[in-house]
Amino acid sequence: MKNEKPIVIQFSQVAFSYGSDPVLEHVNFHIHQGEFIALVGPNGAGKSTILKLLLALEQPGKGTIHVLGKTAREGRARLGYVPQHADYDKTFPISVYEVIRMGRLQPTKRNWTHLDELAVQRAMKQVEIQDLARRPYGALSGGQRRRVLVARALAAEPEILILDEPTANMDVESEERLFSTLGQLKGRTTILIVTHDTEFVSALTDRVLCIGERTGSEKRAHRLVQHRAAPAEHAPPELFGGAALQVLHDEVEPEDSCCIDTKPSKTGAPS
Amino acid sequence: MSSFFSALSNPAFPFLQNALIASLLASILFGILGSVVTVKRIAGLAGAISHAVLGGIGMALFLSSTGIVPFITPMTGAILFAILSALIIGLVSLKAKQREDTVINAIWAIGMSLGVLFLAKTPGYRDPTSYLFGNILLVSREDLILLAILDAVVLILVWRFYPQLEASAFDEEFARVRGVPTNTVFFIILGITAIAVVLLQTFVGIVMVIAMLTLPAGTAGYLAKNLAGMMIASWIFSSIFSFLGLALSWHYDLPSGAVVVVLSGAVFLAVSALRMVIVGYQKKKGLAS
Question: pTM for the complete prediction?
């Protein structure tokens, strides 16, 4: 199927290195509006680096990055970011409501309008955490905290939602609730999930971007390829908040496969 | 204690009124700036800056008494060293995080050693005790004015940029993604802390100023529901400790700074212990049910 929707994230020939250590090379991919994308790869493959580049926390050594037609720095205001936030200060005095308010944070202003309040209330409803609003953030379970961070990202009313390892240390109930929230958002909001599980992804996933293959003369930098995913009958659904897909690592799809017309093959399966 | 109150109204002891005003003005910084230092987890940085200040004081005393730079005051030298060490620590913290501990300790030690060396070569005997441990009874009217100005600056900045401050302390990466200039926020906090340390050392001394920037805030952190509540509770605690400490030290003829720190520390430890007992009891109850 040709995707006619506009491109919201585009990496073109991106390379990045920490000092003399090359991390990424020739990274090319793009994401269309409304797509649900999984970015998978083992630990240390460069997933976090791609995230940092996308969020303009790091600058690429080579190549260009466009977010919503602008540079990453200009475009990131319309991104919703759900970090892992694993090393937070448990004694920090803050309520769930105040964490979610942070989603409406502006660079230097301090005004708070009726519209901001509405967005916060709507975000709490979307992830079903209204009953936790007054609780101290540090008193929540890991899964509840992650949902609060999703609400914080949604409070910004983002066009693209980016989740970094959203299911790490999460209980089954929180995971189901998270994927039901993401299922409702699918199609309206572009979603990018970053995960180290390279075998299975949520059944909501449209495309899988896999990072990890080494490239270059000394094979030190990583590049990114696109894989197809097929329904996995044996994957335990409780691990993926619902049905899962298996990533087919043997099949590499061309970078622009979503933008070219594909005709059904003789067997009826899409090529 | 009644002798303290009668002494306060006694025109023969004008310095005691100054001391009381100074302790209340200092409490605003201990409470509000202390909460920021605590939640930003930069107490170690502030400790290094405060100890480096002795180098500046020693240098100024040496330069003025030897006539090399006759007009330099200990306060000028202190501010110079405080700002310089804050700049170095800030840059290292941002650019070479892995070296932060080493640099903090180096600045801490070098600053103090330079102070000792300068004082040793300063003509006439200079007792470093009042700088190390403070002497609030020596607070001048100019000190009070400077403290009041810094209080006003801190109150205005914290009120105006509260959302950015809260976010950059809670989740700096997220704040940066939302466009908050987190590095600028960090340097402004470090700079203000550096100046505050110099002004506050007249009260509790450079050795103990860091205790007053963390203990009342730490106690308040246990009780408060949010950062603003922590600041207000910490301000109230600091005022009570400072006032009580001053009165007790007057009554029993003790160094005021040390009494204030001991009071703050004792209350912090007591509240921490009480909290551990309560949390332990709740866990036990939770397991039993």
Answer: 0.89
